[in-house]
Description:
Blueprint: H1 3-14, H2 16-25, E1 27-28, E2 34-35, H3 36-41, H4 46-56
Antiparallel strand pairs: 1-2
Helix pairs in contact: 1-2
Protein name: DUF3046 domain-containing protein
Organism: Paeniglutamicibacter terrestris
Amino acid sequence: MRMSDFWRLMDDEFGAGYSRTLASTLVLSAVGGVSADEALAKGVPPRDVWLALCAMQDVPPERHFGKDVPLKER
């Protein structure tokens, strides 16, 4: 997962404003007891941070990989 994917998932799930607050304040025990921002800065893979956030925030498994977006008709 790229950082851009991480932030897209964060914004889609939590909203653009709250996702930044959540990333900087919520302590994630699964990635060393630090915030998402700190974990990413330390080199923890974005996918691991995202899944840790999902677990802490009770994001349903069907949304772990983002919202289903319908295909555009041609």
